[in-house]
From TrEMBL:
Belongs to the SKP1 family. The keyword Phosphoprotein does not apply. This is SKP1 component POZ domain-containing protein. It comes from the Eukaryota. SMART domains: Skp1. Keywords: Ubl conjugation pathway. One of its GO terms (biological process) is ubiquitin-dependent protein catabolic process. It comes from Caenorhabditis latens. SUPFAM superfamilies: POZ domain (SSF54695), Skp1 dimerisation domain-like (SSF81382).
Amino acid sequence: MNSSTRICTNYMLQSTDGKSTWISESAVKHLENVMHAIKTTRHTTIPVNVADAELKQIVRFCEHHKDGYTLYQPLTQWDRQFFSMEDSKMMDLLMAATELFVAPIMNICFQTLTNKTRNMSTEDKLKACGLCYSILSKDGQQFELTENAAKLSGFISAYKSTNGIYLNNKANPILLDVMAAPLSIILKWCEQHKMEKPVVMTSWDKELLTMGMPELTQVLCAANALDVKGGLVNMIIEMMGQAVSS
């Protein structure tokens, strides 16, 4: 063998869910925290604090760009196809890339998410990035609720704590024994008043709760079942009183 010939090394990355993925010496240079671990330990098997799904995506990107990548360069067709994913998936990828400090992926994900959410409300931005809880009604309709809004429901707060539910839980939604129609009213109310203490009934609340007595009764029962704080129950009772007297 020619003395100038250099043998390339492959490295094994072990994910948090116990799976392994190989990465070449040229590609691993994009993973700054992994490179630091390699230099420090001199090991070729490196455990990383990233799930297998995101790790495989990162390795795929790095192998494709193993010959070099310049930050802020125009995206190629391959890059555009690679980053064509749901916003919540991109947020997962961004968090994983941040953990491994993969600058190219971090930059592209951040810029893509920023551009998509520039004209969104704060609530929509959080939901687009997966920073919310997924909730499934009794009749199978799925809703999303931001973290601060979820705090207004004592039942949801207790359910999250007891069952170990975290943000971006689409694969394991919170199951509620409440039908979609009254639940949608309650979740809208929680989002509207999530940053207020105490809550005072406004024209917005009156418009939301303007409905027939049967519907108001369903919302009242659901609000009690979900232990909704902040005055929703009192508002419903007041609206029911107005409906009776009119």
